[in-house]
Design goal:
By secondary structure, the chain is an alpha+beta fold. The chain has helices spanning 15-41, 47-71, 111-116, 140-152, 157-169, 178-187, 190-214, 219-229, 232-258, 298-302, 336-347, 365-385, 393-413, 477-493; strands spanning 73-77, 82-87, 93-98, 104-109, 119-124, 133-138, 174-175, 262-266, 269-274, 279-284, 289-296, 306-312, 328-334, 355-357, 415-418, 422-427, 432-438, 444-448, 458-465, 468-476.
């Protein structure tokens, strides 16, 4: 591939295979159960038509991939400092990205790309959803050269070769070992893994019902059989199996995403590399990071481990997708020294401990009333009028007690620390997080006060950044207004860019 990116050029021709396989996979996911039902119910003479249909889908996928390959091209406009991509089969689109708006560049390699010997390159800005541009097939040298052009905005060939040499010889300052990943998988991200398991079983149950309807099987008989098998022993066994599956899924997800995670400094940028099967290389500019968060739970504190999150700017709601490719980058399992090293690279220095502001005790009132007292009261009313519900009153009482304890812990952890250049918001119940933002990253400030809190001087504060909002609730309203005046003065008096 030509490395003179000022001239329009196509992807590698091997990208036809990548695009064809990608299209087949999308069609296969949408029609899998239809083909399965057709395969099980059709006669022998119709089997030939099923095979012909599969071959027709394969041929259609590769024809579309070839047309996409012919229509797709990209180039770098050096004068305007823009990256231009022309794409589209029927509707032609031209995507123009200003180089100074690029937040990160990801160089990925999945299994198929690894077999073929090409890389995928994705460019991310503060757009609404997902990456702005995705190049499916590009050779390694061109991928890294293009990445350097896009991030550093330098185009001199000699400087490009020197940067490429620095990249090869560079030693990462942080490596996450397999032992550390094992501890991370056992102590964090249970919620995400549980959601993944629930989504999997929901899909299986939904598709299973479709199969039962297709074969006209009596669902009541199956439900009666399953209900008859449920005893206290089997329920306990299923719960134990679910916990084991949860841990296994958590470990697999952790190793899949963060295997051989390395972080190195490259030309005033951070290079993150990780992945077990699909290798990902992400290059970000520290000054485009809007908020930096590190968190730790009880078990991680005993192991001296922190999970870090670097949030970049996004437009509208937060992007969904993989952490390493969205507006949030995650660095799990670093120790205190490694955490401080990353903070110094992102923020320029370690944030000092400033004056701490705590919430008023009225922080407890509304959550306890609406989340605990109201639902438990409704449940007790129902239980007193329905004998079959009475045995579960103990569960409601346990829910009330546990809820009060959790809300109180949340109140005790809710803090905001303010120094000359930094704001640190602390919060959480199990995972205690510290969210750090530079005052120069503040884009707007909102304060408000409930009418019934005016007499006790209690109010709320919201800091708006390009990566989201930071809330401080039920603080002293006089102190909040003084802080707002101080931050507004800093923002107006300093000539700093938030990107």
């Amino acid at each position: 591939m030509n490395n003179d990116f000022s001239k329009p050029q196509r992807e590698s021709a091997l990208g036809i295979i990548i695009m064809g396989a990608h299209t087949m996979l999308k069609i296969g996911k949408a029609t899998f159960f239809l083909f399965l039902i057709a395969f099980l119910k059709m006669s022998g003479t119709s089997f030939v038509y099923l095979i012909l249909g599969i071959f027709a889908i394969i041929a259609f996928s590769f024809i579309l991939a070839y047309i996409w390959y012919l229509k797709f091209n990209f180039f770098l406009d050096k004068e305007k400092q823009e990256f231009v991509v022309n794409k589209g089969i029927f509707n032609r689109d031209q995507v123009i990205i200003q180089l100074d708006k690029i937040q990160q560049v990801n160089i990925n390699q999945n299994i198929l790309q690894k077999i073929i010997g090409v890389y995928g390159l994705k460019i991310d800005t503060a757009g609404a959803h997902g990456e702005e541009v995705s190049i499916k097939a590009i050779d390694e040298t061109s991928a890294y050269n293009l990445k350097e052009h896009l991030i550093t905005r330098q185009t001199d060939t000699q400087q490009e070769a020197e940067r490429d040499s620095d990249r090869i010889n560079e030693t990462p300052f942080l490596r996450i070992s397999s032992w550390t990943l094992l501890k991370v998988g056992l102590t964090s991200n249970y919620g995400q893994s549980l959601a993944l398991i629930v989504a999997f079983f929901y899909t299986v149950i939904y598709e299973g019902r479709q199969l039962l309807d297709a074969f006209k099987i009596n669902k009541d008989e199956i439900q009666h059989t399953v209900t008859g098998m449920l005893t206290i022993v089997t329920v306990c066994f299923l719960i134990a199996c679910l916990l084991i599956v949860l841990l296994v899924v958590n470990l697999v997800r952790t190793f899949y995403k963060y295997f051989e995670l390395e972080i190195s400094e490259n030309s005033n940028t951070l290079l993150l590399s990780s992945g077990l099967i699909a290798k990902k290389n992400t290059l970000i500019t520290p000054n485009k990071v809007q908020t930096t968060t590190y968190s730790q739970n009880y078990f991680q504190k005993k192991m001296d481990m922190f999970n870090m999150r670097l949030k970049q700017a996004h437009f509208g709601q937060s992007k969904k997708g993989h952490e390493m490719q969205g507006n949030t980058l995650e660095i799990p399992g670093c120790n205190a020294g490694e955490r401080d090293e990353i903070l110094k690279m992102i923020l320029g220095k370690l944030p000092p401990k400033g004056k701490t502001f705590i919430p008023d005790w009225r922080f407890l009132n509304l959550p306890i009333f609406f989340k605990l007292i109201v639902p438990v009261s409704f449940f007790l009313i129902i239980a007193l009028n329905m004998p079959e519900v009475k045995p579960y009153i103990g569960i409601a009482i346990a829910y009330l007690v546990l809820g009060v304890v959790m809300i109180y812990i949340s109140y005790r952890r809710h803090r905001i620390s303010v120094s000359q250049d930094f704001i640190i918001k602390t919060g959480g119940i199990w995972d205690i997080s510290n969210e750090i933002v530079l005052t120069g990253k503040i884009q707007a400030i909102t304060t408000f006060q409930y009418p019934w809190h005016k007499g006790v001087d209690v109010g709320h504060l919201t800091l708006h950044t390009a990566a989201g909002q930071i809330h401080f609730k039920y603080g002293n309203y006089t102190e909040i207004k003084q802080l707002v005046n101080y931050w507004l003065y800093q923002v107006e008096s300093r000539d700093e860019n938030w990107m």
